[in-house]
């Protein structure tokens, strides 16, 4: 799959005016969306291990919504597949699907950090 499907804020930038003000606003959106780092997946993983599938699904749904605004189409698809497996109480597929979500999320975080360094360096701590 292409880099665009991992992370792309081009449409968001264009929608907001594609100027320095838009870049700063999008930079804040990216930084805020990625601020929790791996914490949501750690929480979802714990919930899954403890059999709290509904809670894990809610965590993943929230993550998908926050990161989906960043053009993370691959992560959105992977998370949706995992959420559906959790809703169906299909534990045999969950470990593989969770590993896929984790891998895609790491790619998004890496791409977002790279984008911030290139475009909004003042927002990185």
Automatic annotation (TrEMBL):
<keyword id="KW-0902">Two-component regulatory system</keyword>
<dbReference type="InterPro" id="IPR036641">
    <property type="entry name" value="HPT_dom_sf"/>
</dbReference>
<feature type="domain" description="HPt">
    <location>
        <begin position="42"/>
        <end position="98"/>
    </location>
</feature>
<dbReference type="Pfam" id="PF01627">
    <property type="entry name" value="Hpt"/>
</dbReference>
<dbReference type="InterPro" id="IPR008207">
    <property type="entry name" value="Sig_transdc_His_kin_Hpt_dom"/>
</dbReference>
<protein>
    <submittedName>
        <fullName>Hpt domain-containing protein</fullName>
    </submittedName>
</protein>
């Amino acid at each position: 799959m292409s880099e665009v499907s991992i992370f792309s804020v081009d449409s968001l930038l264009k929608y907001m005016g594609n100027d320095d003000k838009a870049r700063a606003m999008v930079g804040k959106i990216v930084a805020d969306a990625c601020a929790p780092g791996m914490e949501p997946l750690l929480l979802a993983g714990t919930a899954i291990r403890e059999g709290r599938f509904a809670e894990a699904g809610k965590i993943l749904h929230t993550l998908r919504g926050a990161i989906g605004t960043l053009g993370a189409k691959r992560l959105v698809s992977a998370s949706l597949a995992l959420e559906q497996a959790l809703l169906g109480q299909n534990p045999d597929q969950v470990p593989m699907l969770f590993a896929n979500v984790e891998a895609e999320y790491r790619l998004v975080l890496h791409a977002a950090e790279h984008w911030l360094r290139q475009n909004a360096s003042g927002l990185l701590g």
